[in-house]
Amino acid sequence: MTVENARDVYITGLGAVSPLGLSAEATWAQLCAGKSGVRHIQNVDVRGLDVQIGGEIDLPGNDELCAVLGRRIENRKLRFALRAFEEALLSAKLTPAELGSVRTGIFTGCEKAETEDLSFGTHACEQGGHGQGDQQAGQQIERADAIERLHQQHILTRCADCVARNVAVVVGEPLCTLNYAMACAASAVALSQAVRWLRRGAIDRAIVIGADAPITSGGIHGFQMLGALSTSNDQPEAASRPFDANRDGFVLAEGAGALILESAALVRERNAPRHGRIVGIGISNNCYNMTKTPRDGKAAARAMRAALADAGLTPEQVGYVNAHATSTDVGDLGETQAIRSALRPDVPVSATKSMTGHLVAAAGAFEAVITALALREQFLPPTINHQAPDPDCDLDCVPNVGRAAAIEYAMTNSFGFGGTNVSLLLGRG
To answer: Residues with Cβ < 8 Å from 225, sequence gap 6 or more?
Structure first.
């Protein structure tokens, strides 16, 4: 039986864009069926790179017109974010015009997008052209204008807060607009902070969005240099193998997750949909290494215990964990130890990144959407590609085939570069 708490925050709207689908519902159907969205990269030139695979999204060619903004959007990350936002509004039975009627906060998890070299050609514009005629001078002016437009595009759409800024235009006059750039934990941090603002009564509604588009030549090369990415180019669908003995790194993916959160009073007032509740949040830091997690999982376990304490729940009440589980060696080991320590060894654990790849800054919000759907549908998506179980990752990872389950509470974990760990506890609506 669902037990409500005055501190609970309701999820009234859900939206997602992923390599498995252009909506939360389409993504969910593919997850439940155990399908992979990983493929050979097609939209980026990866010649010369060791990594040739990723979780890419095929957007319709005529999809640049954004309904909520009423103009065209070319930036991929922003298109993902706004598409997920539109779905979340529809799911919450809200229109853009209604958003400004109550105190609304915007909380996003986005990193700064990789950009072109903004200085290219500047030297030539400054040095060339003296005494070479009007034609070359005209070409230089045209080149300089192009560089100015590139700088403008960078400021408007490539900065970390571009999603928050554009959503603020839709809302009109949001009470707050906050972006968190915490690597893989970015949008989970955004979600946790939205919950804090709602709990203390500072806002009535929160819009939470995580979005990322890290599949660029520079992004791939950077993660490749860290040794973090899978190089299983011959079998893209099987490359992401969390908790498997043969895992060799994570798979970069792109997409977005969006949630509309509302106070209990507002939910009652407008008889809003209830897709779930955020009942507990926990945050910790490893203080260990910028890119690696400790094998003992102690800091991750602290975040899980903090979420339990915040919710007033016992480990036995948690019926499912959507793990961070990126398919890296030490990451999966550390999370296994944390789950065994903070929860219990037999709790069912899914690694949905086995199907979607790693959405990086978008992962926290996106996987919170998936966890809410697992609670709503009472079904646990599988961990696919689990062919050679790692004896050191001895969890019930729902291997290869999803299953029905009666669950009241579920946890989702997000652990980021820099050591930020976030655990969120969700309850049924």
So the answer is: none
